[in-house]
Amino acid sequence: MRNKYAVRLDNVTKIYRMGRGSVKALDSVSLSFLTGDFVSIMGPSGSGKSTLLNIIGCLDIPTSGEVYIAGENVSKLGEKERTKIRRDKIGFVFQHFNLIPTLTALENIAFPMLLRGEHRYEERSRELLRAVGLDEELGEHKPAELSGGEQQRVAIARALANDPEIILADEPTGNLDTKTSMEIMELLAALNRRGKTVVVVTHDPLVAEFTKRTLRMLDGRILTDITDITDRITAAR
Amino acid sequence: MAESSQTSRTSQTESPQHADICVEMRAVFLRFAIRNLARHKLRSSLAVVGIVIGVLAISSLGIFGNSIKLSFSEAFSAVGNELVIYPRSESMISEKILREVERAAGAGSDVIPLRQKYVRINDVRINGRVAFYGLRCEDIPLLVDIERGRAPKRSASECLIGAKLASDHDMKVGNRMHAETYELRITGILKERGIGFDINPDEAVIIDMKTFERMFNISKYNYLIVRVDSIENVEKVKESIEKRLNKREEKVSVLDLRRLMETFEEAFAKISVFLLGIGAISLVVAGVSILNVMTMSVVERTKEIGIMRAIGTSRIGVMCMFLYESLLLGLAGSAIGGVLSFGGGFLILSFWMQKTSYLLAPSSILCIIFGISFGIATSVLSGLYPAWRASMLSPIDALKYE
Ligand SMILES: Nc1ncnc2c1ncn2[C@@H]1O[C@H](COP(=O)(O)OP(=O)(O)OP(=O)(O)O)[C@@H](O)[C@H]1O
Ligand SMILES: [Mg+2]
Where are the beta strands (DSSP E) in B45-126? Predict the structure, then answer.
């Protein structure tokens, strides 16, 4: 049985200490994302979007507050457990694609499966390559031999490798032209339609248009939280 | 609370209960390591060369030290039960002291008196100083083996010559040799014997005691060799001789060759350690170069480490990947170094020992195995710190690194 909430944050604060001063990147944030939700997070630079995503993705630890991923409290977990959650429950998509340069596209996709001990990794990575709309032959290419859009597709396929419940994308279209951006967003929307909880950080209103719900952040707080029915219609178009 | 306990149960059944890194992952890390090393061919080769030199140095110097020891114990294996007696109060040993030593040594021991003199020879074949030993006819077979010919007869103008003297100066049985005003006939050539504390016959001439007396007009003895029937009795005989002869005044000094050998063996052990130390230093240098290569590699790949950690690679996994790299460098370097060590050992032995058969002695092979294992261990140890540092990088900071 799936949990009602894919993500739940309870009074989460993140403070970065640097020298004598400190930055409050997140200021008592409480929120919850329904399982199967499609959320975009917007806001000016430095408002805490990446920090929020990193905390949800178990890459970072909150200074205070609780974080639940699929009902499990992850804010008190050790490094080893958090690594396992990143491997099994979260799929990351980054602005700079962040593929491993020495591995081919297929090997990049297979990597998280190998980490997990999945034996059918070869077959499955081919499936995923096809699922993100890439030709079979591109699978043998190294990331440097792929276009930005293709790289981001590979990155999405990699994020899907262990069939995670949540996809977190930090400015996934930040390095792509408008047309490719729309293609990538179509892909993420399709994943969402198949039941994945997708969270996208973006500066681009067109990108946010694809999502069901948009959070606006400022100075580490959530300013507005709008669930728009028409967005859903646009995305489903 | 209710929702958290519920999902923690489901999550356990979902995720496979594997160890930290599975077999496939190890294979991937290994392939990864090979590719990363191949990315920097020059740098990797230099690190390998460092290990090769280190292993080569350790193994070859180890073989050298070991061969010195081997040749030494080979030369002295026969003399463990010998005492050498030198005069103390006078410059030579008289007939009276010889009798006393014989009595003190007892029936079980052979007492062999010797006379020795360096003689200038001016001959067609030899021109230079040669050691002459005077031995009683009956004692000759006790001390030396004859390769060809026979021993000289009592009082005859005949001699035996050492193997090296014979081969160096192309002398054969039946040849004649002029020493001072005498002419000696060579009746036999000795078997090679090696360096000794009692006598060094390889480059010497051995003549009968009476002949010696006649030629050089010497009637006393330079020293005595006491050959004891068994090693266990050496100490007893030594004490008996010292008690009898040195009671009132120190007439003789008794040299226990076994003791001396022990002292020498200790010295050789120290030489070996010293040589190994030199080898070890070069290996340490190689280790530092691996440390350097791996540290560079970690810094360069910080971003990559961040990505790997972000998508769920454990700390141990990251560490493993870098350790594989240093292990590969070490394996390659040590294997090459091990093979080259045979060549290096051969060169050293043929230059300094003139005897290369020691190269295949088990203890020499052991030196090579030692060098190889040391090379691998050094590489892995040097890789340990960079690998640990890589594993401790914070994923977020590593991801931000450009
Ligand atoms: N590792 C860090 N150390 C110190 N301060 C940090 C660190 N990471 C983030 N910050 C600070 O926290 C605040 C929020 O940063 P964050 O990266 O979350 O912003 P953002 O909304 O993602 O911005 P952008 O749109 O530019 O990516 C900023 O003021 C930033 O300077
Ligand atoms: Mg950001």
Answer: 82-87, 110-122
